[in-house]
Amino acid sequence: MPVLREEHGRLRRRILAGRREQVDRQHSLGKRTARERLDLLLDEGSFVEVDIYRRHRAHTLGMAEQRPHTDGVVAGSGTIGGRRVFVYAQDFTVFGGSLGEAHAEKIHKVMDLAVENGAPLIGINDSGGARIQEGVMSLDGYGGIFRRNVQASGVVPQISVILGPCAGGAAYSPALADFTFMVRDVARMYLTGPDVVRAVTGQEVGHDELGGADVHGRRTGVAAFVHDDEESCLEDVRYLVSLLPGNNMEPSPALPPCGATTDVRPRLPEIVPVEASKPYDMRTVLAEIVDDGEFLEVYEGWARNVVCALGRVDGEVIGAVGNQPMVLAGVLDADAAQKAARFVRFCDAFGIPLVTLVDVPGFLPGTDQEHAGIIRHGAKLLYAYCEATVPRVQVIVRKAYGGAYIVMDSRSIGGDLSLAWPTNEIAVMGAEGAVNVIHRRELAAAADPDGLRSELVAEYTAQLMHPYFAAERGLVDDVIDPADTRAAVARGLAMLRNKRRQPPPRKHGNIPL
Q1: C-beta of residue 31 within 8 angstroms of C-beta of residue 126
Q2: Any catalytic annotation for residue 102?
Q3: Is 169 a catalytic residue?
Q4: Where is the CoA carboxyltransferase C-terminal domain (predicted)?
Q5: Is the predicted pLDDT of residue 56 greater than 80, yes or no?
């Protein structure tokens, strides 16, 4: 028995240490090993590994002579801030992290355990792709992962972390996750690599230019978070988990109330210029509303004309969506609509109340947007809000024009509470544009068209564009002092905390994808 125990100990230590030359090579690439990454991600000493002795069963193409334990993925469970998560980390030091049958079955097991235990799933991707030597079994393994991604969607939060290559079909699992993290210079994700692109199209393109972190963080919208190094990336994964519920049946982790319902923020009216054409940063408004000015912005580099973020108000987690006047004057375009729609649907799936900060002049005009499908993409955001059953508070910060006002969670599409500042402009369009349409004949015939236009604009503004016009008709619930915005939002969310709204019986709707 002592001999067996000693042999077992040696084997386990050898597996945990890995092959020295491969570990050194991983470090030389500026990357940590799978186990080092899990040490950074999880609470110290909390990791429980499953299938550490797993090995592949393939015998073709010389595989019978190469059967390392773990089969290139470290899988199991641990805690983050004391809360249970399930994780897998692909190990590039074993078969380049390539996915074969046994590798996939380990990931399948962890995904099933995450759903069965109602805990978040975190996958760390660093893989050369499908293990070609195992043929179609590798593809079957990917299919099992994708199916489980979809089955877990809206049940447990799914987070993908890209810390190396993620190519071919493997890229679809991060695309199906709720949030994807990437690290510059080491992460790359694409369906077809530079060699295939060159062979098929003749185009010369590098790995980072084709599918690097900044490409997916700024252009494609695949990466929700982009970081410069693995340490800050995994630290932000921990922060994100601290804001999320374990599953769709439990509330997000709350902190004790901090007096938000009576908090006055005198800076708010100073931040937002009264003039509708002057820009400001909506994130500074959000910082005045959330606890301690802290929030986690999602898709920060993509579709920057809308801001999506997670934060807390009086200790409770909220999701915030706001137009960003600093970028394209805060208009909605196809990318912004998609970005906000996906975020709204995530929050609704996991019971996170929504706060919508509105300062929108409309949808971005032009043939590029129309041909890019702005109608279809805008309908996604409309659908997402209309479908949402969580508490929904709208704050009209400055202007709300046209169809974009409707889409930004207005009362007419089911928003629970609409608050407006006294300086708001709520209308079909801006006063000058409206006057040019309504009074075009009078203006064309006038001796002094500029003077007449100024009079008509002032009249239109006074009669139709102030928030009291909407409040008198029940479309705005209260006109508030800007300094009271945080308190009003906190009181509104407290009022709506026990909201219950049952959707009509159906299999599912048909969102305009």
Answers
A1: yes
A2: no
A3: yes
A4: 269-495
A5: no
Percent of the chain with pLDDT over 90: 67
**Burial of residue 167 (number of CB atoms within 10 Å: 0-12, 13-18, 19+):** buried
Q: Tell me which DSSP letter residue 413 carries.
A: G
* Lowest pLDDT segment from 134-138, 142-146, 390-394, 457-461: 457-461
Predicted TM-score (pTM) of this structure = 0.93
DSSP-assigned states of every residue in 26-63: HHHTT---HHHHHHHHSPTT--EEE-TT------STTG
Tell me: do 350 and 417 sit in the same domain.
Answer: yes
- Tell me, yes or no, whether 282 lies in a domain: yes
Does residue 454 sit in the same domain as residue 479? no
Co-location of 268 and 375 in the same domain: yes
Indicate which residue of 78, 168, 211, 319 is catalytic. 168
Catalytic residue among 118, 301, 351, 403: 403
Of 144, 169, 315, 351, which residue is the catalytic one?
Answer: 169
SS3 (DSSP) at 423:
coil
pLDDT tens for residues 344-395?
Answer: 999 999 999 999 999 999 999 999 999 999 999 999 999 999 999 999 999 9
